[in-house]
Design brief:
Elements: H1 4-13, H2 16-28, H3 33-53, H4 59-76, E1 89-95, H5 103-114, E2 117-121, H6 128-138, E3 142-146, H7 154-165, E4 173-177, H8 183-188, E5 193-194, H9 198-209
Parallel strand pairs: 1-2, 1-3, 3-4, 4-5
Helix pairs in contact: 1-2, 1-3, 1-4, 2-3, 2-4, 3-4, 4-5, 5-9, 6-7
Bound molecules: CO-5-methoxybenzimidazolylcobamide.
The site of CO-5-methoxybenzimidazolylcobamide (B1M) has 28 residues, from α5, β3, β4 and α9.
GO molecular function: cobalamin binding; metal ion binding; methionine synthase activity
Keywords: Cobalt, Metal-binding, Methyltransferase, Transferase
Family: Belongs to the methylamine corrinoid protein family.
Length: 210
């Protein structure tokens, strides 16, 4: 019989096939979906997050682990009873206009998902109007913007200004990050938080949404 530790280890190993098989077995054995998520899937990705932070795991391994966790989640999430949703908050995330770098943003999104945040990833090259539309449509708790180019980071400011013009900043937290973005810049443009890496972004998101 499958157990939760085996599931969590398979997430850490990034063994997607095994994660799917074990998750289904645990469901068939009648285990609570919440337990499967908390102790198996998220339990595993939390270890991955810590190892990544400590420099003991690298980007490709983290991505494989996150993909495995997601596949397990797809089996369990529909089984959660109404009002028992595993999401603790909603995040809209994207890379700003003119910028096609998405590796860091994807890692940030995966880490946030591992913390039970619902992430709506808009992709790359997202202009201020598109961010504004997504905020109107999804009513998120947090908007996260990523930029990797010194020439595109100013789009973060343009987006915040447009959100303000549209009266959408009430109750909406803003987080920015990416290699050229500094805490000072985040302050100057009126963002609520800057985060250095994906693990810090996850922690900051949870604090902001709390
Ligand atoms: Co480009 N690129 N690139 N590039 N590229 C950089 C960023 C650069 C520093 C390389 C260099 O010159 N040394 C330089 C920028 C210079 C500058 O502006 N200061 C550069 C350039 C110039 C360019 C082009 C203009 C090159 C050209 O065509 N002449 C071009 C621009 C294209 C465009 O965007 N319009 C370009 C293109 C590309 C590729 C397409 C080839 C590819 C991107 C592929 C992809 O993303 N799908 C690419 C890559 C891979 C890089 C480097 C090598 C690596 C970036 C990366 O993925 N890092 C990069 C040089 C480098 O950084 N060493 C470089 C790994 C990733 C995990 O880290 O993205 O920093 P990072 O994300 C971290 C944190 O920053 C933070 O957490 C992440 C995870 O820990 N974080 C957040 C990120 N977003 C966050 C959001 C948050 C919080 C934290 O809250 C919401």
């Amino acid at each position: 019989m499958a157990d939760l530790e085996e599931l969590s280890n398979s997430v850490i190993e990034g063994n997607e096939e095994k994660v799917v098989e074990l998750t289904q077995e645990l469901v068939d054995d009648g285990l609570e979906p919440k337990e499967i998520i908390r102790q198996g899937l998220i339990g595993g990705i939390n270890v991955v997050g810590q190892r990544f932070k400590d420099g003991d795991m690298f980007i490709p391994q983290v991505m494989m682990a996150a993909e495995s966790m997601k596949s397990g989640m797809e089996i369990v999430n529909p089984l959660l009873a109404e009002g028992e949703s595993s999401s603790v908050g909603k995040v809209v995330l994207g890379t700003v206009a003119g910028d096609l770098h998405d590796i860091g943003k994807n890692l940030v999104g995966m880490m946030m998902e591992s913390a039970s945040l619902e992430v709506i990833d808009l992709g790359v090259d997202i202009d201020p109007e598109e961010f504004v539309e997504a905020v109107k449509e999804n009513d998120p708790d947090l908007l996260g913007m990523s930029a990797l180019l010194t020439t595109t980071m100013l789009e973060m400011q343009n987006t915040i200004e447009l959100l303000e013009e549209e009266g959408l900043l009430d109750g909406l937290k803003i987080m920015v990050g990416g290699a050229p973005v500094t805490p000072n810049f985040a302050d100057e443009i009126g963002a609520d938080r800057w985060a250095q890496d994906a693990a810090a972004a996850k922690e900051a998101a949870l604090e902001l949404i709390e």
